[in-house]
Each structure stands twice: as structure tokens, then as C-alpha cells.
Amino acid sequence: RFSQDYLWVVPLSGHSVVAASVPLEHSHRHRLSLHRHRERTGKEGQVLHRSKRGWVWNQFFVIEEYTGPDPVLVGRLHSDVDAGDGNCKYILSGEGAGTIFVIDDKTGNIHATKTLDREEQAQYTLTAQAVDRDTNKPLEPPSEFIVKVQDINDNPPEFLHGPYYARVPEMSNVGTSVMQVTATDADDPTYGNSARLVYSILQGQPYFSVEPQTGIIRTALPNMDREARQEYDVVIQAKDMGGHMGGLSGTTEVKITLTDVNDNPPKFPQSVYAMSVSEDKVSGEEVGRLKAKDPDLGENGLVSYRFIEGDGMTVFEITTDTDTREGVIKLRKPVDFETKRAYTLRVEASNTHLDPRFIAWGPYKDTATVKVMVEDADEPPAFMATSYSFEVEENSPDGSVVGRVHAKDTDVANNPVRYMIPRYTDVEQFFSVGPEDGIIKTTRPLDRETLPWHNISVSATEIGGHHQDTKVRVNIKVKDVNDNAPEFATQNEILVCENVSPGKLIETVSAVDKDEMVHRQYFHFSIAPEAVNNQNFSLKDNRDSTASIYVTRRGFSRMTQDVYFLPIEINDNGIPPMSSTNTLTIRVCSCDSKDTILSCNVEPYILPAGLSTGALIAILACIVILLAIVVLFVALRRQKKEPLIVFEEEDIRENIITYDDEGGGEEDTEAFDIATLQNPDGANGFLPRKDIKPELQYPMRPGGRPVANSVDVDDFIKTRINDADNDPTAPPYDSIQIYGYEGRGSIAGSLSSLESVTTDSDLDYDYLQSWGPRFKKLADLYGTKDFADDNS
């Protein structure tokens, strides 16, 4: 059997054994181990039996990156069947056999001919076999063995994901973890220290440190302030061989950024701010701005402002501009230079978001003083009241005083003021105002019933200065005076039956008054003095502004009198009292037994007996229906279109002339009378028309007209065409010209269906025989003729 590393192995019980392949420096120890095994076997005097194997292999080793001048010896193979006479031949196959690994076929020595790199391939699997040199027959069964490439430290550590970016809050405690960096080494981690890495920091001290074994970066200094320095560039090194001398190293860069925390309070750049505002500014207008600076970012640097004290806290307000982080001071209400010329305010600026870790570093606020000076402005006059309300009695004479408005110049100059009423507020000019004293007067008597309120404006203009003006609303109420008499609320007629009973209530009347009704005021009704003695009707005052009308006689007659007039006097009991006489119209009507009114007119008594109102309505309805039928019939007759040319008799061309035999075409003039084509009504050369009235009568055109029996059809048609072209009374749009002659010499040939019978046609009309009796005539004309032609 084979042995390796030049170790000869003693056979056991006739079986060959191959020793394990070990490095040469361990061959002595291995030889001793085999020797002890042989002695132990001999002492026991027994043989160990096992199944025969052609090969027993362990691993060969070869160092990577060998750069010597000669091929490196990997090992030696030897079989116990090799007698050393050269008949045994060793063969090597597998990965790299013949290219990387070669074997001496006589001695079995294996050499590596190329430099190996473990990082490219860590091991190679080969197959060895011993064969007879002459016959190439196997002397031993083939077997596999492995050649492992032994690692050396030839690869430096690498950071695969660099450069790195990390963030850590400012003011973090010492030892706060920032991030972890990891390097990789392509060398064998199971062999030696080639892949054992140690981390160290080359740049970034004393701010940061790194754990040697894990690569975790931590803060090394307390209270690192972002506002002082925000970014740090840290360089981390990873070194193999446990960091000892001779190890390879790699580096990476870590950019560390300090994130913001709220560790700074807002601060006003100055302690006192001076501002000014004009007295003519309106509420909501901006007065000025101030800003407290906070170096923190985001919500940590948000600042809110408020007034904490001062004499202008009710006059001014402060808000925060979120975009600029400024405090904006605005007017809450207008200021007056003449009243107060300066205000002092105390403003506080504070952070809105506080970090509980740094509250002890507070307070996170600051204060400043704001002085606001009020500037004088030329203001318009000011009325003493925001609006005025006056009253004036109606019907007051013109020039009556309504009231007075007063305005003054609020400026220091205190210029005089002039008053006027804008015409658009008093279009009809009911009032006037004194230009200097502001007294409002009427220009005419006013009527409350026409217009109870007058809403006008009075303008006050400063004399001198910038002529500024201001307006005030004046509401004038017209007080009521009892100047209108009452009258009936409605003017309806009262209907009463002829057979009405005495004492029956026929109507309750009421009254209205255009004047205002005071409390407990009511209307009083009474019959006018001229009708007090009437014997027909009576009146009762109900003392609630209504009166009841009763009948005092028995029965009325429409034939005698159908309408009665009852004058009633109405008094309003006002101051001064006003009264009026109103006439109540009472009409007598015909009623049935149930007092249902049938008619209130006298005309039905004059109508003949037997004709009632219903009969008259029926007669009128029939007359209307007959008239509608007549109108509809006439309208339909007018819609019919009549011919433009009037003929006394029916045109002969509208007749259908039937021939029992077939014609001979255009040239056959014996089969019909040409006179039938002529219009007998047009023999005189004029056709009367209905739509126009010709102004001139054209005489018969001289020249011969073809006689009826003429056989020259061509001359006849040309004559007719010439007559039609020269006749202005026959419009071309409603005349029909009949051409019965086709002519000769056409390039396209004849298109007449009649002439096609005499031509040699390629069409087959035999199918007409199967179409039934209706097409028998066509079948005889075409199919039979074709059949006859075929027979001929």
C-alpha cells in the first residue's frame, strides 16, 4: 500500500496500510506511534483483521503564496506493490492535476508548480492510482485525497460599507454609543491570528473612542455643544494579527453629526425697543417687530411672545410670525395723540418646547421693554355721537327744527367745521342743515302715511387743513297726527234674498284708518243722519271697531228695486276726531227655499219663457263647435297644392295607351300616332298659368310644324325643343320634355332595353322558365328566342 511524507508503514496481517499524511516535522512522532502499535500487536499475539482497502488517505498541506524558484513538494505516494523495479506507475487526476499538481510516475512525489491562493480556492480534491507500466492495468483501486492550502496573512482587513454616517445628540453623556463599524478579513479565521482584528481610533480623539474588540464608537467627552461644533470626522483602523507588529490594517471614515437639543434659552439682542404708530392707523395694523434669538433648531428653537406688563396691554397685541420667529406688535384699538402720546410694554420671549433633561439649565425665557410713541395725524372731524335719532310731527311747516348734530376737529389746531347733507341720502331734499351750527330743519310738510322714517347722513368737513370729512347717520321718525278719516275695510256688496226675514243679520262691517291707533281707541259706527229714518235696514255698533247690519222689513222685490244704498258714518275718536261717511251697497237677489242665492240680476225676467240660462249656454256651445269645423275644413283645403298650369280638360298625355304587340323601336313610326305626343291645349302656342300673369303674348312662331302623321320624329322633337326654349310663359322648372328618339352615332352605343332584343347578347335567360306564370311573357320573349336561335 501507499505511504506518504516518506513514511514507510509496516504491513499488518498481509494487508497494506498507508499512514496519515502529516507535515515533515511531525514524521518522527508519527513513526513512533506506528512502532508502538506494532509492538502492542506482537505482545498480544493476535492479528487484527479488517476489510481490505486499496487506499487510506488523510490530507496534504501546501503553503499559499509560495514564491520559491523550484516547485514545492506537496508529498509522496508509495504502494507496497511497488518493488522498485520501475514496473509501478503512479497516475494523478482531479482538480488541478497536470496543471497545478504534477506527480513523478516512478517515485510518486507530488509537486505544486504554481503559486496558490487560499482566498481563491482553499482545497483541491485529487485521485491517485497505481497501474502497471506496461499494461496500464490497475495495481491498486483509485482513491481520493485532499490537498489543503495553508493560509498566510496576505489580506488586510476591509470595511465593506464605509464611509459611515452617524448622529448623536449634543450634550450626551460620556460613553454614549454612536454606532458600530465592522471590518472583514479574507484570511482563514481558524488558522493562526491572520483574521483576528483589533479596532483603534486614528482621528477623532479626544471626542470619541472605539472598543477594540467590537468596533463600537462611543462619546469620550461630556457636554459636546452642537452650537460650538456640529460635525466630526473620525477615522477608525482595523488591524489583524491581534493588533501585533506585522499585522495588516485597513481604515474607514465615520462622519458624526451632533443633533440639536433644547439647551439654549431665547435671548433678546437688546433690552429696549423703540417703536411709533400714527393715530390714524386702524385696528389690526402692524406697529413693529422684535426677535429673540435662539441658536437651537426646529421645535427646540421655537419662541412665543407675550406682554407681561405695561400701560398699553389693552391697546396693543403681540403675535408670533412662525416663518421668521419674530414677535409682531399690532394695534388692538386705535390710539389718539391728543389723549395719550406714549405707551410702555414689557415683552417676554420663551421656548414652547422644553427638554426635561435640561430644565435645570433654565430659565428658557428672556424679557425686553418696548416703548411705543403715538404720532400726530391730521384727522377728520369727530361727531359727539356715533349716530343720531330725532322725531318730527307730520304736517309740520317747512323750517321746523328736527334736531342738531355736533362735530369738532380733534387735532391740536381745532379748525372750524362745516356741515352738509349728501344729496344721495336725501334725494327729495326733505331736510336742510345749517352749515355752521349743524341744526337740521324740514323743507316741506312731511306725511307719515307716505314715509314714516327718513334715514339721512350729515357730513362734517374741516375748514382748512386737508379738508377731511366724516359722516354720521341721522334717523328721523315722523310722528303721527290724526289727519286721516276711517273708511270701510272692504268695499264689497252685501247680497240679501228677496224673502229675507225681518231682524236678520246680513253683514258685519269693519273700518281701517291710515293713522296709528292708540291704546283703547276704537271706531264708532252710526247711520248717516240723512238715512236715519229708513225703514229697510238698521245698524248696531259692537264697540269693538265693528258694526252689525240688520234687515228691518219683510221681503224685497227685485222688480221694484234691486239695489239699496245705506250711508254709514264712521268716527275714529282721535285727537282731533276724524269721521267719514261711507256708503254700503246692498243688492237684492233671488233665492230658493234654503236661502241659496240663485241670481242677482234683473235680465232673466225679460227672457222668453222656456229658455233658461243653461239652454242659452248649450246653444252658444253648438255654434262655437260648428264654426271651428268650418275653419278647420277651409284650412285643410288651402293646404292642397294646385298645379301651376290650368288645363280645361285632362291632358291626353296622362292616358295610358296599351299595345298588344311589341314595337319595333324608335324607328318604327307605324305602331303609334305621333299626334298623341302633342298637347292639344298648346296648339295655339300659349299655355295659361296660374302662378304668373304674362305681360306679353308671343305670336305663333312662323314656320311649318310637322303634321300628325309625319314619320320624321327627329324633326318633331327639334321643333318642340325650339318652342320650349323660346317660350317665356313656360318655366323650365315645372315642364317635362319627352324625348322618344335616341339618335345615331353615339360612341357608347344604344342603352335602350328594347333594342337589346335584336343584339347578340351573351346573357342566358333560360332561368325565366322556372319563375312561374308571372314571368311567362318574358320567358317567351327572351328564352324562347334564344332557344330558336340555337336550333337554327
UniProtKB/TrEMBL annotation:
Residues 79-159, 160-268, 269-383, 384-488, 488-606 form the Cadherin domain. GO terms for cellular component: adherens junction; catenin complex. One of its GO terms (biological process) is cell migration. It holds the Pfam family Cadherin. SUPFAM superfamilies: Cadherin-like. Keywords: Calcium, Cell adhesion, Cell junction, Cell membrane, Glycoprotein, Membrane, Metal-binding, Repeat, Transmembrane, Transmembrane helix. The chain crosses the membrane at residues 605-636. It is a single-pass type I membrane protein. The keyword Nucleus does not apply. GO terms for molecular function: beta-catenin binding; cadherin binding; calcium ion binding. It is found in: Cell junction, Adherens junction; Cell membrane. PANTHER family: CADHERIN-11, CADHERIN-23. Cadherins are calcium-dependent cell adhesion proteins. This is Cadherin 11, type 2, OB-cadherin (osteoblast). It comes from Hucho hucho.
